[in-house]
Write a structure and sequence with these properties.
It contains 16 helices and two strands. Strands 1-2 form a two-stranded antiparallel sheet. The chain has a domain at 249-342: Serine Threonine Protein Phosphatase 5, Tetratricopeptide repeat (Alpha Horseshoe). By secondary structure, the protein is an all-alpha fold. Strand 1 and strand 2 form a beta hairpin. Helix 4 (77-97) crosses helix 5 and helix 8 (167-184) runs antiparallel to helix 9. The longest helix is centred in the N-terminal third of the chain and has 21 residues, at 77-97.
Length: 342
């Protein structure tokens, strides 16, 4: 990792330093948490002795350390939850010490993005938004407002707003990002098409189905031309369009598109891929709405079996699948089977 002065520090040096601190009771090792703890007064004393330049340097060094640590624990949710207070505290120190006109390096931008991504995975939307907003403002200073990375950060901000249910604000930011990407990258660039897709999704979330359908059709047409019919993004557009059609009661069109994406995704991604399972879910729901309960039941059972194997019994997607199967069974009068699903 990097020191506050920007030099590289080896792991052995860090361990040796902690041993010295332990000898003076400045830190203590907590075996149950596999982590060091520092007394708040010691922490405050050390912090207060630093001038602004030193605070900035130490904050950035801590940021780099967190980036490395998070990268090494991507699959450990328990560890990620434990580190959240450190992430929030570290970001607070950085935002206080590195105000405008802070120009983060590439690695510092990656580190900030890593913090935001961790917070997103744990559903800490407000904390993630603060990180993404700070990152976006700093990237504008470092790279300019029309740089592709800046526009990517704007897109991420809109995603966070959507996750918080702030759909109108998300829609406004998606439209702004789309306009900028069209001007800078062109109307057929994959990133521009990604902005179009995201805008259509947030319109769908607001119940603006006709607008969402129009933009999804436009995005699908462009993705077919640019990426090809079997590209995952193109199949994603077909799936999204099918969902919008379903919510407008256009079941025949939705069914045809879900069958198309299911066939292609099964061939390209495999039967157990999450996108394939989403297509199976979508098709089963359309069949249910058309009163084809036997077919819907069969597909829900197949999807549930695969979700249990791939995601586990308690995964949210698995639980939704259980609920959908129960609805089909009750519609057929199979109440005991519906009650016994698990």
């Amino acid at each position: 990792m990097l020191s506050a002065e920007g030099t590289t520090i080896s792991s052995d040096t860090i361990i040796s330093g902690f041993k010295t601190l332990q000898a003076y009771s400045l830190v203590s090792w907590r075996a149950d948490q596999q982590a060091y703890a520092m007394h708040k007064l010691v922490h405050a004393w050390g912090h207060d002795r630093l001038d602004m330049e030193q605070r900035q340097a130490s904050s950035l060094a801590a940021l780099d350390l967190l980036r490395e640590a998070i990268a090494g624990h991507e699959e450990d949710l328990s560890w990620q939850r434990r580190v959240v207070p450190h992430v929030v505290a570290s970001f607070s120190a950085i935002s206080a010490a590195c105000g405008p006109p802070y120009r983060p390096t590439y690695l510092e931008r990656v580190a900030l993005w890593t913090l935001g991504d961790l917070l997103r995975r744990l559903g800490r939307w407000e904390d993630e938004y603060a990180v993404q907003l700070f990152l976006n403002q700093a990237t504008v200073v470092a790279l300019g407002p029309e740089h592709s990375e800046t526009l990517g950060n704007m897109n991420n901000l809109a995603v966070v707003l959507g996750e918080q249910g702030k759909y109108k604000q998300a829609e406004e930011m998606y439209r702004q990002t789309l306009r900028s990407r069209e001007e800078v990258l062109g109307p057929k660039h994959p990133d521009t098409l990604g902005s179009m897709n995201n805008l259509a999704l947030v319109l769908y979330q607001q119940g603006k189905y006709e607008q969402a359908e129009e933009i999804h059709r436009q995005t699908l047409k462009s993705r077919e031309e640019v990426l090809g019919l079997e590209h995952p993004d193109t199949l994603g557009s077909i799936h999204n369009l099918a969902v919008v059609l379903y919510h407008q009661g256009k079941y025949d069109q939705a069914k045809e598109m879900h069958r198309q994406t299911l066939k292609s995704r099964e061939e390209l991604l495999g039967l157990e891929h999450p996108d394939t399972l989403r297509s199976m879910d979508g098709l089963a729901l359309v069949l249910y709405q058309q009163g084809k309960y036997d077919q819907a039941e069969e597909m829900h059972r197949q999807t549930l079996k695969l979700r249990k194997e791939v995601l586990g019994v308690k995964h949210p997607d698995t639980l939704v699948c259980i609920n959908n199967l129960a609805l089909v069974l009750r519609e057929q009068g199979k109440h005991e089977q519906a009650e016994g699903i698990n």
